[in-house]
Amino acid sequence: MTLDLETQIRRVADVAFDQTEPVQHPGGRVELDRMSDDDGSRRRRSSWIALVAASVLAVVALSAVALTRRADDSEEPGSVDTLDFAQGFSVRAMLAEIPLAGVDPAANTFVAGTDLARLAGLAGVERTAASDPLTDPTAWVDLAFSDRTVAIANSTLFSASVTAPGEFREELGFDFLDVDRYITAWVDVLDGADSSERSYSLDVFALGAGVDELAAAAGDDRVIDVGDGDDGEINPESVSAVRPIGRPLRVGVDPTGPVVAATRSTPFVNEWLTPDRASLADVADLLEAATQLDAVDELYSAQVASFSRDASDVEFDRIEGVSASDIVIDEAFTTVGIGWSGVGETRSTTIVYVFADDGAAARSVEPIERVLAPDAPLATTAADVTTVGQRFMLDAVSTVGRSVIVTGRTPADVNAADVAQLFSRSGPISAHR
């Protein structure tokens, strides 16, 4: 097994095993039901890693048809100014898929997505699977899951579609080759909202083909219940590779897209299905970040996160190599967007800081240049990674209105998606005084 693919398998296994918020969630929260690290849990995790490896080895060997089936890769690369995620990829469209009702956008918000069709088009590869991606991977499998220079959104459900394609198709009715683009999101529930959850998660999949069978199964309410039990209930009797701790999923089906959304919350999926509803695209700071990212050519993957970044809340004694004196950004900000564009020699990473006004953005250019300089200290738990230059190579810092726009790229030996981790721990890059 190659080191790169083994690392990918372990990362996918870690996410899918927990079936909860990602390890690098921007708010730093940990679900109460996250598996413990006792001996039993480690044995279960080892078994799960073995299952993932076996599943990846036979990713689409379940069907001879799946070896050549692919979604339409005819989409032209380039930014799309649209609020319709079914029709094209844009960060505004990503935000528009996430309902605002019952959500507290002033708290923790995280939205990420990837346009697989655009990525394949940029790289000039067909989206085909392989019977054995370890010994004979197709160009698409290798690009999406082994190429360090490519960043795809870390979605638990999308990972399961790759590692357990049979069970995923059985439960949700499609697999990863059907997905043109996808979104994964976590938002905090508004205090007083009618919900048993303290946060909502939502995964949205724009498919390259119709969903007639799914629509028929969903019926008039357009919702399919996957698994048994109430919202958020852990049911050991209803465990699957898609739902390792047995929580049921509510799957909304919009056959006109076709678009499918999956969440643990019945009210949230019903709100997603509601026409002309308010969405995160109506939140000014999130929309500002999206607008700047959508101006980037060849954008294929992006994330927008918003949460408190006040350094006074940071416990610096728990962060290796960083102190309060390293925080040099004076102007307050909560929202940061990250976009990945291009492949090969044209690859680039764009970071957007959103401030209160144009003046605050202008005053923040110099301190942002300082915290992203090659020798600037980095908040990390990795003992061999101490400076920003080991994770991100800065090209330029500029302003557009009230946003500071940073461009650069990751070193060739660093996973492109790891740029997001610079903002998942409180430190000079991700906090203000």
Please give a quick description of this structure:
The chain has 433 residues and is α+β, with helices and mostly antiparallel strands. The chain has helices at residues 3-18, 39-57, 91-96, 116-123, 139-146, 156-163, 165-172, 212-218, 266-272, 284-293, 358-371; strands spanning 109-115, 179-188, 199-207, 223-226, 249-254, 259-263, 299-306, 335-341, 348-354, 393-400, 403-409.
* Annotation, overall tally of beta strands: 11
Order of helices and strands: HHHEHHHHEEHEEEHHEEEHEE
In the sheet with the most strands, the strands line up as 4-5-6-3-2-1-7-8-9-11-10
Sheet bearing the most strands, described?
11 strands, antiparallel
Low-confidence stretches: 1-80
Domain count: the total is: 2
Shape descriptor reads globular
Kindly estimate the percentage of residues that lie in beta strands according to DSSP.
15-25%
- The end-to-end distance, rounded to whole angstroms, is 46 Å
Computed CA radius of gyration, to the nearest angstrom: 21 Å
Helix content: 25-40%
Class computed from helices, strands and strand pairing: alpha+beta
DSSP helix count?
A: 11
Mean pLDDT over the full residue set = 80
